[in-house]
Design goal:
By secondary structure, this protein is mostly helical. The protein has one domain. Helix content is 81%, strand content 0%. It contains 6 helices and no strands. Helix 4 packs antiparallel against helix 6 and helix 5 packs across helix 6.
Amino acid sequence: MSNIYEYVRHPRAAELREGRPVKTRDLRRVNHKNPFVRFNARFGLRITLVVGTMWCAYAFTILALFALPSAIKQGTYFVVVWLSSSFLQLVLLPIIIVGQNIQAAAADKRSEDTYKDAEAVLKEAEEIQKHLLAQDEAISVIVARLEKLVGPAAT
């Protein structure tokens, strides 16, 4: 008796075995052929890593507070202008970058977990395929024995 079912492996399964999930840190290593693009990417990343710290936010707060007494002397309008253009922009920029870095790390963790889950599902599917092949062989043996006892089935 021929095989009851022939398993064909999905091509993505081989890709999954060879690779790993892409993480934010992988994208930091920019491999462009153009040296200007490479320099700009590295320089931009370096600035982002420096500005995206709470220490930078504290330094910007102190810097912005130097202009506060002058704004208070000039009146309410200038206090509002100082608050919106100096203080909030200077202080919120690094805080937002810090938050984005935390979100990127969380996304990396979720990506890694999803990858591990996919690997686990793939392994389980392989075991199911082995189990089904063993059952196919057992069924084939049973059918062969029945055919000997009863004779070929009339169709």
